[in-house]
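Task: encode each sequence below as structure tokens.

Item 1
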Amino acid sequence: IWLSFTDTRLGDLIQGSGPWIGLDNFKEVFTDEHLRTSLINTVVFGTACVIGTMVFGFAVALLLNQRLKGNLFFSIAVLLPWAVPSLAASAIWKWLFDDSYGFVNWALVELGFSQFKDYAWFASRNSAYVSIFVTVVWQSFPFIALSLLAGLQTLPKETLHAAAVDGANAWQRFRLVTLPLLRPIVAVLVVFSTIWDFKIFDQIYVMAAGVPDRAADTAAVASYREGFALSNYGVAAAVAV
């Protein structure tokens, strides 16, 4: 926070910080096109990842709660993405989305979407964010799914049975009974997911490196570039704050 109000460069670190400049760094954050875009990217992309993670996590939790045959192995498979380090997962998914030999393009072409032959996912911000969104949700949903599954298994069975007897269909039981009872857990998970997705760094740094003009940078990546690549620690600290 202190650095964000100073004009601190590499040489100034010998004395701890540079001269005090007040809110000038924050003005630069909101007037510089790249830094301003990185903040917008963080809010828009982070929110999309939170929604995607919660929806997919809820769907998997409901599926696991059905106690179907083979759920034990499915539960183990759900845990695997969470166990993979973010940098390794990002490198793997970047290869999967490669325009020349990636599995994703090959699979889409085989399914009849010929426009995806040699499609360059990382040539623009929007298409790059699609691939990064898949990666982030794939890594984030296991914690959400298992937490919600624990909540689903504590719900009073008689309440759900009574709703079914009263004529409520599956969607009505979920919307009017299950969701309200899980509201405290859902609220906490939304907070956790928001914290994780708004400070996203690894996936953006690895997968969006080839996007022109660094258009896909988020605030965390922009702060890193300003501080460690350009030695502009005051602006980097302002972006971080």
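Item 2
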Amino acid sequence: NAFMFSSIVGKVFSIEEADKSRYGDRFLLFEEIYQNLEMGYNPENLEYATFCLMHFLASVKYIDQFREIKNIKEKDAVQRSILYMKDNLENKITLNDIAKSVGYSNSHFGSMFLEKTSFTPMEYYNQLKLQRASSLLQFSDLTIKEIAFRLGFYDPFHFSVIG
């Protein structure tokens, strides 16, 4: 997986001090790697340290994503709409509901969302539902039928076609 970070190898980065710099998070991650390796070099520890190192390197390569993850822009209608969608995955919502939640008309919001994400709002919403379904399948004791019903896929065929 070293090729993933080849674009930053050998480069010097200067990360300016700012509220969103998240220096503390990087220090904690580095400390996590160090303390884990102090517990021994067994395969599990080495694998865990490797994944932590990948996260650490990603925080530099993808600095904007790393910084903004905890700083959702209040004025960004698309980000606010995605939060609205996430909060309503178990409810039946429409494009009108989403557009209204951020104060835009359906057509203006739809084109703005598509331009920023390359998905229509409802395509994005359905992808979020599928991600939630996947998480519930993996980490809960709910059946596929219960998950489909919970997320508003009342027809098993519809649930399987969307996925």
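Check on item 2: The chain has a mean pLDDT of 85. Residues 43-61 form the longest helix (19 residues).
End of task.
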